[in-house]
Structures are given as C-alpha cells and as structure tokens.
Specification:
Structural class: alpha/beta
Number of helices: 5
Shape: globular
Distance between the termini: 14 Å
Strand order of the largest sheet: 3-2-1-6-7
Helix content: 40-55%
Number of strands: 7
Radius of gyration: 13 Å
Amino acid sequence: MLFFYPADHSPGCTTQVCAFRDAYEELVGHGVEVVGISGQKIASHERFAGSQALPFPIASDPGNLVRREYGASKWIIPWRVTYLIDEDGIVSDVYSGMVQPLMHVEYVKQWIAED
C-alpha cells in the first residue's frame, strides 16, 4: 500500500503516519508493504521518521510529480490518499479523506479482513 500525506510534522499527518506505525506489524503479518510519500525533502523525512520511530519508508516527492500521477491532490492541495496495490502493481482500491487521518489505517484493516 502507498499512502500520501500532506506534510511532515503537522498534527493530522503525524496522527496518520503514527497510526500506520502502530498497525505496522499487523499489516506486514498480512503481507502488506507500507510506504508513505509526501512533498518534503529527504532531510525532513529523515527527521520525521526518526522522531516518530517509523518502521517503514517515506519517500520524498518534492515536485509532487508522483502525487499528480496518482491523482492524490484536490486542486493544488496535497491530499491525504491511501492506495491499495496488489502483487501485480495494480491499484485495487483507494481511500481518500483529508479530515479523518485515522480512517486510512482502518480502511486498510477492513480491506485485509475482506480479502
């Protein structure tokens, strides 16, 4: 799975990222790889990942090129979107929601339960 979040160190994004951190072992136990991505530079991601003890990678997309390719923006605003991608690299489901960051991990857990 690949999740986009707007910004390192912001309250909602920290909540979202830490929810994936806290569920990481459960997700990996079901064969899910977790990758986060946002527009900050690598140095910001390194500080953020270190301060939150993240066990998964967060990728840097400073020009938001990957975000735009996935359609993870609303107008010009970087949006909070989670993509569930199967073994063949096909996006099988998408959850988009800006104001409920905890729902992203819950959606992934539901997807696993239904699989």
